[in-house]
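Have a close read of this protein, sequence plus structure tokens, and explain what the tokens say about the fold. Thanks in advance:
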Amino acid sequence: MNSDKLFQVFVTGLGVEIGKINDELAYNSIPQWDSTAHMILIAELENQFDVMLDTDDIIDLSSVAKAREILAKYDVKFD
């Protein structure tokens, strides 16, 4: 369930179709994922998963897979 939620965060944050979201999707790999969208993603992740990411995590968020890894540090489990 959290995987679907994570993908939806990226759909909302980047304004792209769900079909473009996969674990390999990385920062700046598509035009929509620029610095502004990155901050929107951070806000969406924090809101949807009820976490407060620290500065290092915000900087390290470089892909969907990395988002999973970072959220796991905050006890978010993925199916």
Q: What stands out?
A: The radius of gyration is 11 Å. The chain has one domain: 2-72. DSSP finds four helices and no strands in the chain.
